[in-house]
Amino acid sequence: MRAPRRFEPIPESARVVRARSGDRTELWTETVGTLPPVFGERWVERDGTTYRSFEPNRSKLAAALLKGWSGGVPAAGERWLYLGAASGTTASYVADLVGTGGRVYAVERSLRPFARLVGLADRWPNLLPVLGDARQPLEYTGLVPPVDGVYADIAQPDQVEIVRSNAELFLRGPGTRFLLALKTSSMGRDLAASAHLARTEDALRPVLHLSPAVALEPFHRGHYLVGGRVRPGLFGAGPDASARPRAARFHGRRRP
Ligand SMILES: C[S@@+](CC[C@H](N)C(=O)[O-])C[C@H]1O[C@@H](n2cnc3c(N)ncnc32)[C@H](O)[C@@H]1O
After folding, report:
1. Which end of the chain is more exposed for a tag (fewer CB within 10 A), N or C?
2. Predicted TM-score (pTM) of this structure
């Protein structure tokens, strides 16, 4: 496939551009990584900047942007906690979005993908792999500081509870963001995908100012991107403050 002739900015991110290719829209991230490609995506140089194609079939975040997600994405200079990084495909894109001034703490519990994630982090200096179980977030409080956002793609029946407990522990406070690539088939086949989405939103509404969810079809069947900005209520009933990341106190950023 040929490299696009012209890139245009997109309103959702200063580090993502789009290009038209026939009737298709392509997304590209300004990368902070170095070659070779992660999975065969295209890389091009333009005016001293390197871009890589942000593929919706490989990344639910790219699919969400193409499907009209308006709830915000990781921004330059931010710190994000990424749950379920696997071998780092989307985590490397999130690292592109936060740029060299940001950090991505990428949690994965399975050794095989984690080994590939570690190899990738050699080429993405702002990507920090964490071997851990996202159901046991207290175990990595020493490695992950307070963050501006939590992104989760863990495809587990209790994915909502997992992301919520991590958000409670690691988000800096109200107004920070929480994005979940919701895999409805992991939540049981007894309900339709839309019913799982409705239940998830009901569970999150008390703690999040929800953005309109987007269905990730045709790129990812039965998946939605769900999320929004957190309300002060998220931090009310969480783990004891002494368990929270030390950097929270070091940076003087107190939770309510
Ligand atoms: C759908 S894949 C992630 C794909 C990846 N986010 C991407 O877009 O490149 C889900 C991953 O979550 C991991 N996972 C599932 N449960 C987990 C847990 N409790 N803690 C950490 N990782 C978990 C799995 O090992 C798997 O690698």
Report:
1. N
2. 0.93
